[in-house]
């Protein structure tokens, strides 16, 4: 059977359901019901599923148990982990068929997903959609096991934790879908973490770049999937898998509804530690000399500030994930060839950022942010900016007050 000519094709919609929406047989039946409702819209549906509930964690625990905690063989590990999504995809196909819908499950391999050979964090290289097209043309709902593919070696790979989002966006691109719909246990993207202020408002839409900056928020979106959406301009709709409330559309087009709003949201990261290296001689190569040992140790450095002083020395301050502070200080103490007088560790910090493409070329936002923080008595420890973000490092104790004040100051509770 050959594929239908392109002009005759129905629009394709790719939907992805997360593991927390597929924890039990009953939940799988509920989701099957939602899928069949969408099928009634006359679209071709590709569904990507994650493994049921915590089953990926359970498989990892089993691998730890049989190896007495040694690092398991990477090839076997990927094949093992891929089975979690095989369970959910096959059960979903069965559930759909049991209610009278024609459905078929495909593993990543069967769906033509080719990856590089990096076990545990493989990247999708190419997708051969022939089989998928054939099944859609047969009128079937196709359920694809997320998070997995096939390396050229013939071995199964996985895409890294949370990788089913990436599978979904990649399949949407490959099938030229209208959009990729991600259904999850959060119901959209909010102006800020709703646990910090009851003024937080669900956004109807947000740009890809803004979403990347906000990715740390409750959305639990895999940043790689957002990057992929941005590169191929594939709109990603995030909504609840439990309700029919409207969610948030992440897209690359012009904002239509919220175009006048310069600040879209406030992102908060509480996982911040700080290192200050004092008394560094101010000469070329110093920053590289300090940061290279950290890179070699696999420690990512985030905000960096260097303060020049008059006596020819400088203080060099940067942030790392809070859990890495001790290790970073040890590495610098032991390995840095850069002369210094003292290494000071800082904790109890958080990163609060305002994000919005509308801030580009519009002055005054930084001043407003800093005066708002001053107004609640928050001392700003460090500042960094990008074109669409202003980030401050402040004390963790002041995060809630800061978010509430900023949310007010930038009127984020209002949709226009
Ligand atoms: N099951 C995998 C994980 O838990 C992939 C996914 O959920 O997207 O990380
Ligand atoms: Mg999962």
Please provide a written account of the structure.
The protein has helices spanning 25-39, 55-66, 74-98, 130-137, 164-174, 208-214, 223-232, 286-296, 325-335, 365-375, 399-409; strands at 12-17, 44-49, 103-106, 113-115, 124-127, 141-145, 148-151, 156-158, 179-184, 205-207, 236-240, 248-251, 265-281, 304-308, 313-320, 342-355, 382-386, 389-395. It has 416 residues and is of the alpha/beta class. Strand 1, helix 1 (25-39) and strand 2 form a beta-alpha-beta unit. The strands form 3 sheets. An 8-stranded mixed sheet has the order 3-6-2-1-9-11-12-10, with helices on both faces. The protein has a 6-stranded antiparallel sheet with strand order 14-15-13-16-18-17, sandwiched between helices. A 4-stranded mixed sheet has the order 5-4-7-8. The structure holds aspartic acid (ASP) and magnesium ion (MG).
Which characteristics define this entry?
416 residues, Carbamate kinase, VC0802-like, 2 domains, 11 helices, 18 strands, 32% helix, binds aspartic acid
